[in-house]
What we know:
Distance between the termini: 58 Å
Number of strands: 23
Number of helices: 3
Radius of gyration: 22 Å
Oligomer: single chain
Structural class: mainly beta
Amino acid sequence: MRKNFPPNTWRRxxxxxxxxxxxxxxxxxxxxxxxxxxxxxxxxxxELSNETTRVVLEPNLGGxxxxxxxxxxxxxxxxxxxxxxxRDTPGRGALIPGGRxxxxxxxxxxxxPVFWLGRWRVEITGxxxxxxxxxxxxxxxxxxxxxxxxxxSASHLACTQTIINRGGTPRAACHWSRTLADGGGICVxxxxxxxxxxxxxxxxxPEGFLLFRPPEEPNxxxxxxxxxxxxxxQQKKFAVDVSEGWLAYLTRAGLLLVKRFAVYPxxxxxxxxxxxVSIWYSEERACELEPIGPMETLAPGARASFxxxxxxxxxxxxxxxxxVDLAAVRRMVDASKQEAAP
Length: 342
């Protein structure tokens, strides 16, 4: 039955709704260093910024970090042919630009277009902070939430991905980062002194075989306790069972991208090689930096989170790639660790 309210009641209700909407918009505007922007053909992006660093989060195609720049110099792979592209854009390739995230294990996860290609909900959650939320994947019943927070004055970007089981049965999955850095750089990954791999790393052959004793090649070496990839390798994909939770990548534009993350030696890692880091190095287009989390078995309604900490540092690209200063790289990694400490 329809109820008849006095005219003044309707006016009061309408006014309350309008005030709530205005208050909500004003609250979002009150957050320092966070605003809605249009970027590279997309609407509804969020920019997080401070005096030196700019981050753009893009919700229209996979909930990704579209830009991560220090003093105007971009660290992530960009491709103008993807500007404004969505899941329905015809002719879309596989190498979608930006700081991507995913769930694994790689070889056993079912297709996940809802996460990788879908549209995400975006919201500003605080000063230089925002959240991206996926739809629930109908195949697995999983949902992903990604929280980002930029430091007030430094390039430190904290990225937390939470996996939530919205389904009715237990599900197993792990965090899988797939950040596409600008191509043609130099990659540095610490080698585990107690590695299970004879050379401290392994590679994947094109047929999918694991090469536990990869052949020697000029662009790949282990030096001063680190795997060093200075140019396009013969085998593109590497696995490293790191004991130190970091990796670094030097771009040709003179930026050192550092990632720090937790490593759990007593837990199970679900990749075929049981590794906590993978690197995929394309010829000149992009280098995919992949911290991997341990396996999480989630009961219905349960959730699990994994956090990566990112930094950008100025770093002179060497005239000869073999001359990269690994001691300087480690100093910057150590400085980043101290900055992230509570």
